[in-house]
Amino acid sequence: xxxxxxxxxxxxxxxxxxxxxxxxxxxxxxxxxxxxxxxxxxxxxxxxxxxxxxxxxxxxxxxxxxxxxxxxxxxxxxxxxxxxxxxxxxxxxxxxxxxxxxxxxxxxxxxxxxxxxxxxxxxxxxxxxxxxxxxxxxxxxxxxxxxxxxxxxxxxxxxxxxxxxxxxxxxxxxxxxxxxxxxxxxxxxxxxxxxxxxxxxxxxxxxxxxxxxxxxxxxxxxxxxxxxxxxxxxxxxxxxxxxxxxxxx
Length: 249
Hints:
12 strands; two-stranded antiparallel sheet; alpha+beta; about 30% helix; about 250 residues
């Protein structure tokens, strides 16, 4: 099934993008279950971000005394005695996460690979992009293979390009500006001699075209090839998304 644009008509006239994003991880798990070698297990994770706002005014009007049991001298401390050095309004909006994690169950359920389906909240502003890229960089530092699948056509940012800027600079094969929709697998590895290197397999995504097959690395020497097209088509069919996408020109 060719790639649809899940953020514009005709698809989003009948289906919300998060319906697809929420369903795809489980289809990926089912697909991976058939191709992962023994000792490896895939599991889905879907977290819908919800706003958590701190309103300083509510604390200004709150006269209840806070107590901290077991302070330095063994007594208690009231709120008046514990003054913060900074109190400001904060927007701590949690980002949505749609992902599949792959574990090595023979090594204490060690995380070895992650497939991140990018959501609009991951790339809608600089602070969110920085958090997402930092999360991916942390996984790579732990030796986890990370796959990014970005179908968000309504946000121009490219998180893979921002990840490279953080870690190594640029990818000379990326066009300028880099495409908003793409799929890429990235891994870090340490050769027997020399410094650690970063490997990336990058594919631009085009509406109306098939999805690529990506490598998913389980160890530095062992990986599986994951045809994104299979689970994508299964998810579309399960949700009744059968509208033929316009052909790319």
